[in-house]
Amino acid sequence: MDLEAVNDHDHIKILLKHSTFTSTLINRERAREVTKSAYESLSLIPFIKTILQVVAASRNFRVVFDFNRDSSQLIDPIVDRGNFYLSTTITACVKELLDPYVRHRGLGILAHELCHYAMVLTYDSYARPYYQHSSQVILNFDRILAICKNNSDKEELIKEVFDCVRNFQHAELIARVPQLIVVYNDQPDKLNECRENFKQLFDMFELKTAAEMERSLTMIENYTSKEMMKRNKLIQISTLFGVCAMIGLVVVLYLFKA
């Protein structure tokens, strides 16, 4: 890996180089200015800078800034877009970046989406936030998931996790931490309240996930398009088999009831 990707300034240049824009609201020059400003703002926040550096280190990715849609219109990328994190494309609906009053929400969703891809690079575990065969870590995540579910009424961004497919709730839950850190970056009292309400989750991200991301910077190899396409094809085949099995089960249950 070319270690210039982890320098204090070069990771922003690399992120910009690999960013594209979708917008009917602003021109390309303005879109680039907004994008650069977003990366610079995120890079000033502890833990979030590490996420940016990990993504930049891969050198084989594309970030699509959709300025026509806001975060409320963001579909679940893993379920609805055919695993696009694993095909090295990250889409962020960030219309909020254009409005100074809600810019923090746009920054939060950008941090969230980049965190998902950083976890793909760090763990090489099909978008899960831990290494393969990490049985104890999975149990820990299940325990934290249950605790957060009990407290989910205290924070809407956490509550939304439990609308996701169960298999992706671990990844969605941990990616909410950088999102919360960014959204409440200018509201320290609110951020501290979140830390208290979801202490185990914040500890998992800051002491384990972010630390493992930082360590991975020296080990991440450039993902080639061929390798990622091959992996994505295998995952899509696996997903298709799963869907077929589910349809078969529904048919059997229907016939049984009939």
Notes on the structure:
The structure is a single chain. The chain has 258 residues and is mostly helical. It has two domains: 3-223; 225-258. Helices cover 60% and strands 5% of the residues. It is built from eleven helices and three strands. The chain has helices at residues 10-17, 28-43, 48-58, 77-80, 103-123, 135-150, 156-159, 169-183, 188-197, 199-216, 225-257, and strands spanning 19-22, 62-66, 89-93. A three-stranded parallel beta sheet has the order 1-2-3. Strand 2 (62-66), helix 4 and strand 3 (89-93) form a beta-alpha-beta unit. Helix 3 (48-58) crosses helix 5 (103-123) and helix 5 crosses helix 8 (169-183). The longest helix is centred in the last third of the chain and has 33 residues, at 225-257. It is globular and about 60 Å long. The relative contact order is 0.12. Residues 1-5, 75-84 and 222-226 have low confidence and may be disordered.
How many DSSP H or I helices? Answer: 11
Order of helices and strands: HEHHEHEHHHHHHH
* Structural class estimated from helices and strands: mainly alpha
Helix content: 55-70%
